[in-house]
Amino acid sequence: MGTQESEGEEMNFIGFLTEWTIITEAKSEFAKLEANKKPLSDDEHTEVIKKRAVWHHGIKGGETPAVWKSVDRDGKATYVTNTNRAFNKASTLKGAIKRYHDFIKGTA
């Protein structure tokens, strides 16, 4: 049996490990999506621009899509939007555009 101090330190360590595990799993999921990144089709690109889900990173602040596509080995597409602080994904382009406007844009 430990002292109160060592029990408190143990709980802090367990809390740290839990938080670290959650962050690591999220990064791993994002890394997998990023590793399978594919270009949007012309129609998908047009839809993203039309719906104003864009970053202004292009030449002279030009619009670039804030949504990208990841395709797994089975050919299943996942649409992703992200900043350096957060990411969100959806199984449809429409869903990813909504996630961009509802959440991701606010983390920029």
Description:
The protein is an alpha+beta fold. The protein has two domains: 1-35; 37-108, no CATH class. It has three helices and six strands; from the N terminus they run αβαβββββα. The protein has helices spanning 4-35, 42-50, 93-102; strands spanning 37-38, 54-55, 64-65, 67-71, 77-82, 87-90. The strands form two sheets. It has a four-stranded antiparallel sheet with strand order 1-4-5-6. The chain has a two-stranded antiparallel sheet with strand order 2-3. The radius of gyration is 19 Å and the shape is globular. The N and C termini lie far apart (48 Å). The model has no long low-confidence stretch (mean pLDDT 86).
Q: Helices and strands in order, then pairings?
A:
Blueprint: H1 4-35, E1 37-38, H2 42-50, E2 54-55, E3 64-65, E4 67-71, E5 77-82, E6 87-90, H3 93-102
Q: Tell me the helix content.
A: 40-55%
- Bin the strand percentage: 15-25%
Question: Uncertain segments of ≥5 residues (pLDDT<50)?
Answer: none
Strands side by side in the biggest sheet: 1-4-5-6
| Overall tally of structural domains | 2
What structural class do helix, strand and pairing data support? alpha+beta
Distance between the termini: 48 Å
